[in-house]
Design goal:
This protein is of the alpha/beta class. Among the domains are: 166 residues, Nucleotidyltransferase, domain 5 (2-Layer Sandwich), CATH 3.30.420.10; 179 residues, no CATH class; 215 residues, P-loop containing nucleotide triphosphate hydrolases (Rossmann fold, 3-Layer(aba) Sandwich). Helices cover 46% and strands 15% of the residues. The strands form 5 sheets. A 7-stranded parallel β-sheet has the order 10-11-9-12-18-8-19. Strands 22-23-21-24-25-20-26 form a 7-stranded parallel β-sheet, sandwiched between helices. Strands 3-2-1-4-5 form a 5-stranded mixed β-sheet. The longest helix has 31 residues.
């Protein structure tokens, strides 16, 4: 069959089951890879069109009042669809609607083979930034004249399909073969198309860019050696050639404006390198700090032929440096240099494990089939094997855990898999690079594991350094949870149930002789029983404590900090006994797995067994740390439970109370030069807080504060209402009500374009539903973290897509969200971002400070809140042309004795403290 018909419908709503009706049909016919025909018609829906559909499509009731009914047009539509594939961008929707309408008038349902362009694009363009039709039209440069109108959407879908069909014709035989196996679990009927293509490819012998190994095709990318580069210019001349008049910056950047702070920062970093000093450099928004530190780092690394590490807090910023900043620096610098990105093992795909899964006989569910298909095509394109390049479906994430390099076991250079391992390739690339870009998590893993993960380095630049303490604490601490522990034991399984150990025994008969299957099965069920008992008891223990000791986390879990010596023995001792029993049983499991490992000669099977032994050992170490060691003086330990979750939804945590001495001994004392930078390191112009928390020695420290080049006095107004109701823990309803009224009043003035930052998810949720209720005719698009679906990036994009939108965010939205220009005109900070005083980690740190005569509020709570406040404040102005209002609903900023720490830590801007009504007048005048 070589006839393809593309269908697109506009409807009165999303559900034919709810009596929604079709209002417009667009059809485009493709024959011999050309568009040969089109058809479109409006339909009378026999009901009125909802306002949001009119807003989306532009179709009003009067446009359809004289249109034919579906009954009149049904035969015309079905005739066009005869003997052809039916194609749609989300087939279940369009075909479902059409069949529902056909059934309702007594006509037979369509039985065409279908092709879904959403699914096909996910498979064939797995790195696309999104899969909505508009996003794909931009990404693949397809002209889209009239979005959300049936014929225009059908045309774009038709052109998209032709691009997809073309892409199928480029796939190698091995990839097609695997896709054919997966095809029956997909929505699209691809069998004939793939089969035909395989026949065409079967006889091709020309050279390709792909390697084929064990029946899998993937891109050939062997890291290339680096040449030694000699630099003749002095550092001063080098900076002149970049920053000064007629320099490379001027020619490379459109509308280049020189920023003095940028060059000063480049000089300070180089001087710190030469003087073997550590440096704290606060570079406020607009300084251009990424370039300012890359320029000296590259010069120093190439000149001395020694690697320099750059660490960022998030893997997103890592990618941004590599994809945006490095290509720009390559234009600015005249000599060649090499940069490598290195992440933790869990980010890389293991080809060995993936092949293993491809050949396994298990029937895939839809998400796993889709994930496998996406990965098959992605392997032909990826140079890194870094899974962050893909947007996996939700259950695909779980499948990916089984095939990440984390499961590969110990590296064995003699294994044939070694040279195909993406993780090993990433490490080799890092060995050959001048600059290694990593993240705080891997940097800390490296520091606390005797420097065995990153190549050797003496100098390091830490961006977003205000997060280093928190990351180091997490990495020096530990986390255990019931679901993960049970998952690991379930994956290992018992003999006779088809899980890992059963498959292992089927392939290696000697195992059954070495280990009694009966004894093993008993042991597994005992371990699971004891584990369940332990976690249920912990859950009950926390649930029945007196209220004062429990707090709610910002995601709504109950937190309880426990201290061995202070727990009531009668209730706590049984938990200690259970923990001891769990360790005892897990030790037995390890004992048997060690016997099994000794019987195995096959490397892959041995690796998998060793990996499982390591996981079980980590559980024993964790339980000992959390329950059996007397370490209350140096560690804070706490439990989190989901009060409305399963009776064993329990998470256990431990972190060092003070990580500064560890960092001082294991990091600052052994490295030549550590540069720490961020837009927010000071409080009231002093670095002493961050220096103390990180343990940076005085004798080798240089510090510098670089002000923002933006003219805040002209660009920003800060407004604080003096008539908001008092906020308190037991009743925040009046305060939330006042906040929501202010949000809607300000949104009227700024036409939406508002970011509202909350300190608790609970308050965000209450506000979201209250605003939804009070808003007339859905005037503003309301987007809320944790309520609207999607990642932080996706929510931000949606916010920028709509003209009148309000974005509500908590924790992760206080920083790293860039919304320049007119998209954001008003930033509202609902409460000053203090951590709750009874948060387990804060409480333990506060007690530790009191012992040494410190003041927990002024030395810990306040500096943390000020730094977070400054991060939030920095969301508003991202360029010289931005202007807007920061509205702070918390009068403590003006009234309290410590308010000046907030006002004196942000740039000098006019601050108005007045009634809400007066402030609204001022806001109107300002805009």
């Amino acid at each position: 069959m070589n006839r393809f018909v593309v269908l697109d419908l506009e409807t009165t709503g999303n559900s034919s089951a709810n009596q929604d009706k079709i209002i417009e049909v667009g059809i485009v016919v493709i024959e011999d890879d050309r568009i040969t025909d089109e058809f479109s018609t409006m339909l009378y829906p026999e009901k009125s069109i909802p306002p949001f559909i009119t807003k989306l499509t532009g179709i009003k009731d009067e446009d359809v009042k004289d249109a034919p009914s579906f009954t009149e047009m049904a035969d015309t539509i079905t005739t066009l669809l005869e003997n052809s594939y039916l194609i749609a961008h989300n087939v279940p929707f369009d075909m479902g609607f059409l069949n529902s309408e056909l059934t309702s008038i007594g006509k037979p349902r369509l039985r065409n083979p279908v092709l879904d362009t959403v699914e096909l694009t996910r498979i064939l363009f797995p790195q696309a930034p999104g899969f909505k039709l508009g996003q794909l039209a931009d990404y693949l440069k397809i002209k889209h004249d009239n979005p959300h109108r049936a014929l225009s959407d059908a045309y774009v879908t038709a052109k998209l399909f032709l691009i997809l069909k073309e892409k199928i014709s480029t796939l190698p035989y091995e990839t097609l073969q695997h896709l054919l196996k997966i095809e029956k679990s997909l929505k699209s009927d691809l069998y004939d198309i793939l089969n035909k293509q395989m026949e065409l490819v079967a006889f091709e012998t020309e050279e390709t860019d792909y390697i084929s190994y064990k029946g899998l095709a993937f891109l050939n990318n062997t890291p290339k050696k680096r040449e030694k580069v000699m630099i003749a210019t002095s550092y001063g001349e080098y900076l002149d050639s970049i920053y000064e008049e007629n320099g490379s910056m001027e020619s490379a950047i459109k509308q280049y404006e020189k920023r003095d702070g940028q060059r000063i920062m480049s000089e300070d970093i180089y001087d710190s390198f030469q003087g073997k000093k550590h440096a704290l450099i606060e570079a406020e928004t607009g300084t251009g700090k990424s370039l300012a530190y890359l320029i000296p780092a590259i010069y120093e690394a190439v000149k001395t032929n020694k690697k320099i590490v750059i660490s960022t807090y998030t893997t997103q910023l890592q990618s941004q440096l590599l994809e945006k900043e490095i290509p720009l620096v390559k234009k600015l610098i005249s000599f060649p240099f090499k940069v490598a990105l290195l992440k933790g093992k869990q980010h890389y795909l293991s080809i060995e494990k993936f092949i293993h899964e491809l050949y396994s006989a298990e029937q895939d569910n839809y998400d796993i089939a889709l994930t496998k298909a996406m990965i098959l095509v992605w392997l032909l394109e990826t140079e890194t094997g870094d899974i962050d390049e893909l947007h996996l479906p939700s259950h695909g994430q779980l499948f990916y855990r089984r095939i990440s390099a984390d499961t590969e076991g110990q590296a064995d250079p003699s294994s044939p898999w070694f040279k195909y391992s993406y993780y090993q390739k990433a490490r080799r690339k890092a060995q050959l690079a001048d600059i290694i870009i990593t993240n705080h998590a891997l940097l800390c893993t490296d520091i606390f594991n005797e420097y065995q993960f990153l190549p050797k380095y003496d100098k390091v630049i830490i961006d977003e350094a205000h997060h280093l303490e928190e990351t180091a604490s997490k990495h020096y601490g530990l986390k255990l949870d019931y679901v993960n522990m049970q998952h690991v034991i379930n994956q290992i399984g018992t003999f006779g149930e088809g899980k890992w150990i059963d498959k292992l025994a089927t392939n290696h008969v000697q195992i059954k002789e070495a280990v009694s299957s009966e004894r093993w099965n008993d042991l597994v069920s005992l371990t699971k029983y004891e584990l369940d008992d332990l976690f249920r008891s912990i859950f009950q223990y926390v649930l029945h404590l007196e209220g004062t000791k429990k707090v709610l986390s910002d995601v709504g879990r109950i937190q309880y900090r426990y201290e061995e010596r202070k727990e009531k023995e009668a209730r706590w001792n049984p938990i200690i006994e259970m923990a001891t029993r769990v360790i005892f049983y897990i030790r037995d499991l390890i004992h048997y797995l060690t016997i099994i490992s000794q019987q195995l000669t096959d490397k892959e099977a041995k690796d998998e067994t060793e990996h499982r032994i390591e996981l079980l050992q980590s559980f024993i170490d964790g339980i000992e740390q959390l329950f059996l060691l007397d370490n209350d003086s140096v560690a804070v330990k706490w439990i989190e439970i989901e009060a409305y979750g399963a009776k064993n939804a329990v998470y256990l945590y431990s972190e060092p109370v003070n990580v500064s001495s560890v960092l001082q001994e294991q990091f600052f004392a052994v490295k030549e030069s550590v540069i720490l930078t961020s837009a927010t390191l000071t409080m009231k112009n002093s670095f002493s807080f961050i220096q103390k928390r990180l343990g940076i020695p005085n004798n080798r420290l240089y510090s510098k504060k670089l002000p923002s080049p933006f003219s805040y006095e002209d660009q920003v107004r800060v407004m604080v209402p003096n008539d908001f109701p008092e906020w308190n823990y037991s009743n925040s309803d009046d305060f939330v009500m006042a906040t929501c009224e202010a949000i809607l009043s300000l949104a009227e003035i700024t036409s939406g374009r508002m970011l509202v930052l909350f300190t608790s998810y609970d308050m965000l949720k209450k506000s979201y539903y209250l605003i939804k209720e009070s808003m007339e005719n859905e005037k503003f698009v309301l987007i809320a973290q944790g309520i609207s679906s999607g990642s932080r990036e996706r929510l931000k994009k949606n916010f920028q897509t709509f003209d009148q939108s309000i974005l509500l965010g908590t924790s992760s939205f206080w920083e790293g969200v860039d919304i320049p220009g007119d998209d954001l005109s008003c930033l509202m900070i609902v409460r000053l971002p203090f951590q709750p005083p009874n948060h387990p980690v804060y409480e333990a740190k506060a007690q530790d400070m009191k012992k040494t005569g410190g003041n927990a509020f002024y030395d810990l709570a306040l500096p943390n809140a000020v730094i977070r406040f400054r991060q939030g404040f920095g969301r508003l102005i991202r360029s010289n042309n931005d202007r807007g209002i920061v509205f702070v609903c918390d009068a403590r900023m003006i009234r309290s004795s410590y308010g000046k720490y907030f006002t004196e830590s942000i740039p000098k801007v006019p601050i108005a403290f007045d009634s809400t009504t007066e402030l609204m007048k001022k806001a109107r005048e300002w805009f």
